[in-house]
Design a protein that fits this description.
- The chain is an alpha/beta fold.
- It folds into 2 domains: about 5-155, Spo0b-associated Gtp-binding Protein, Chain: A, CATH 2.70.210.12; about 160-335, Rossmann fold.
- Helix content is about 15%, strand content about 25%.
- The protein contains 6 helices and 14 strands.
- The longest helix is centred in the C-terminal third of the chain and has 15 residues, at about 260-275.
- It is rod-shaped and about 105 Å long.
- The two termini are about 35 Å apart.
- Mean pLDDT is about 80; it is low at about 185-195.
Length: about 350
């Protein structure tokens, strides 16, 4: 199934049913009076958070979501049947945006949460409601009110505790594969990862109930100029907005003009261009590929440069697992510390 993190959709709640004009017709009751029932209420369109979904793919090609209208009122004081609500499953982390104004309407952040995105119309009143001392046989009733109709955009932001950030091919996918059961595609060419991946990191003995978990998210790599559309742009940065901690990965590169510090500063610039609040999140910085001798040598020089900025540069290897356990414990401690 393809990963889809945004889609446009129209939602239409059910219209209310119309009221009825009717009169009692009983033997020995020549003037029974009005007996028209009210129309039924229209159904709502409701989004329900489903933990089992991780994409908006099911809604990508749906043009309209339409709830059932209410039934009309009937004689003998019978009310019309209420329209059934239309319940639509969406992934946890879905943001609902009004397309006309561009403003967020609501968001689904808890499993099984229910959000009414379009309310059904009210049923019209039957003619029994319009009887007066001077008009004992009214022949009018109300039509039902129309249900709400909205043009919406759905945007998915993955729910994770830690977000991985770095240039393409710094080892983000390899790291998340090494510390969790996630299996993103790993290759030697840039932009191997084209969609976010989530992995659950477990510390301690999970089988005896002593383990502690946190969720880590791997997003496609960024490059300098991403905020202006370079590479894959900053489309996937929205998936870091719900994270509490950023893990910034760097490595050495043979490309001219690149260095661990230059890469870090370039991506910090892109973060600030996208969202200043996101750029202020706590972060941990680590150099990958510690299993290579040249990386170990480069780490000593880079560590001093980062220390001058007040940043501690860790050294890890996803291939040999060197430093990974200490890094994961540090991430967990940072998550558990007071916000």
């Amino acid at each position: 199934m393809r990963f889809i993190d945004e889609c446009d959709i129209r939602v239409e709640a059910g219209d209310g049913g119309k009221g009825c004009v009717a009169f009692r017709r009983e033997k020995y009751v020549p003037f029974g009076g009005p007996a028209g029932g009210d129309g039924g209420r229209g159904g709502d369109v409701v989004f329900v958070a489903d933990e089992g979904l991780g994409t908006l793919y099911d809604l990508k090609h749906v043009r309209v979501l339409r709830a059932e209208p209410g039934g009309p009122g009937e004689g003998k004081d019978c009310y019309g049947r209420a329209g059934r609500d239309l319940e639509v499953r969406v992934p946890v982390g879905t943001v609902i945006v009004d397309r006309a104004s561009g403003e967020p309407v609501d968001e689904v952040v808890h499993p099984k949460a229910r959000v009414i995105v379009a309310r059904g119309g009210e049923g019209g009143r039957g003619n029994k409601h319009f009887a007066t001392p001077t008009d004992r046989a009214p022949r009018r009733a109300e039509p039902g009110t129309p249900g709400e109709k909205k043009e919406l955009r759905l945007e998915l932001k993955v729910m994770a505790d830690v977000g991985l950030l770095g240039f393409p091919n710094v080892g983000k996918s390899t790291l998340i594969s090494a510390v969790s059961r996630a299996h993103p595609k790993v290759a030697s060419y840039p932009f191997t990862t084209l969609e976010p991946h989530l992995g659950v990191v477990t510390l301690g003995d999970a089988r005896r109930g002593l383990g502690k978990n946190f969720v880590i998210a791997d997003i496609p790599g960024l490059i300098a100029g991403a905020s202006r559309g370079a590479g894959l742009g900053i489309r996937f940065l929205r998936h870091l907005e719900r994270t509490r901690l950023l893990l910034h990965l760097i490595c050495i590169s043979d490309e001219p003009g690149r260095s661990p510090l230059a890469d870090y500063q370039a991506l910090r610039k892109e973060l600030e261009a996208f969202d200043e609040d996101l750029a202020k999140r706590p972060e941990v910085v680590a150099m990958t590929q510690a299993d290579r001798p040249e990386v170990v040598e480069a780490h000593e020089a880079a560590k001093a440069e980062f220390q001058a900025l007040g940043i501690e540069l860790r050294l890890v290897s996803a291939a040999s697992h060197a430093g990974l356990d200490d890094l994961m414990r540090e991430l967990h401690e940072r998550l558990e510390s007071p916000r």
